Amino acid sequence: MIRKFETELEDLKDKILKMGGFVEAAIEASTQALIQRNPEGFKNVHAYEREINRAHVEIDECCLKLLALQAPLAADLRLVLAIVKINSDLERMGDQSVNISYSGEHYLSKVPVKTEVNLPQIATQVRQMVTEALDAFVKGDVHAAKQVLEKDDAIDQHKADVFEKMKAEMQTHPELIGSCLDMILITRNLERLADHATNIAEDVIFVYTGRDVRHGFGGDSGT
Amino acid sequence: MIRKFETELEDLKDKILKMGGFVEAAIEASTQALIQRNPEGFKNVHAYEREINRAHVEIDECCLKLLALQAPLAADLRLVLAIVKINSDLERMGDQSVNISYSGEHYLSKVPVKTEVNLPQIATQVRQMVTEALDAFVKGDVHAAKQVLEKDDAIDQHKADVFEKMKAEMQTHPELIGSCLDMILITRNLERLADHATNIAEDVIFVYTGRDVRHGFGGDSGT
Description:
2 copies of one chain form a homodimer. By secondary structure, chain A is mainly α. Chain A is built from 6 helices and 2 strands. Chain A has one domain: Methane Monooxygenase Hydroxylase, Chain G, domain 1 (Up-down Bundle). Chain A has helices at residues 2-35, 42-70, 74-108, 119-139, 142-172, 177-209, and strands spanning 211-212, 219-220. A two-stranded antiparallel ribbon of chain A has the order 1-2. In chain A, a hairpin with a 6-residue loop joins β1 and β2 (219-220). In chain A, α1 runs antiparallel to α2 (42-70), α4 packs parallel to α6 (177-209) and α5 runs antiparallel to α6. The first copy, chain A, is elongated and about 65 Å long. Chains A and B meet through α2, α3, α5 and α6 of A and α2, α3, α5 and α6 of B.
């Protein structure tokens, strides 16, 4: 019975990692299509999103079955609950990638903004946070998860910087208002992707330490 | 043992409803402060958010304990897992209310936009969706939950309308760009609140029918 539970849990972790791979691919496809000004590339994002949504439903079913049939305890129970939450985060990351592809398609059809925005750098940092959060999950690496949390402020700062730059450009180049708005929305979507990576990292810390680091309360699970 | 489980489950439902009450209060406080142009009102939002964050950690702990000690099955298990998810949604609704208060404070410090935006109507519709989703949860009312899902499109449409109106106003009144951007962000926050209410309604449908209505797959839980 124990061996069966461990096998099922490993299977569930594999499913989450495969879903995470689709999420990484969706982020990569949407940001690269935008950066390389290749609107064709956005089409792949929708294919990845379908896989993400399929995995979302399947993983929730697996978690329910595992809880019902195996009734795990302590760290194992925390792991299954974390998977339920990580599953939700990954699904919403698929939505954000699709949002980037919509704003990106709109953006590429118009005159680009004049102010320099280092989208490749922001996109790379966000993708790294996502990859590192998923790696921390699969390795149970609390230290790596904490490092992900520390990177979130830099992305918030990028978002705020781009917002101010675009506001200024809209004043001086009213003809570029549409493009500036797209750029604002795209960097907000990237920032939300980073937020979801942060949520995943917080879940990893909770699974492997039993400590809830959200909201600075630092409570113990007691189980 | 069964009686104890039912008592604990009722206790957990009460906690979610109390948290939901703080979320409703946070939305009410942030939108009313904005509509009545009373910046003092935004202060209450932060007090409500602290209560929401406290409840978020506490409810997750209760769910873990309930799963560990009682190992519920079928509909009871789905209910506890739904509470885990609803808890996350409510916490993020607190964040959205805080975001409205930040943009709202900024907005009230400047010249208002000229184009008419029916914020009271949008805010009322969003608050109704939240209240109806929580009512559907407490009553286990699948029909009411489905009605919440049907209301989401209207909010998406409001968001899109405001976006187009503000884009046009920024072109004709570049001096109001800052205010127009605030209005865009505020309606996006309201739309995200409606999305979270939709998530809650989907969870209610899943708990009481065993059917996963997300992504149009309509899968059964099998437990």
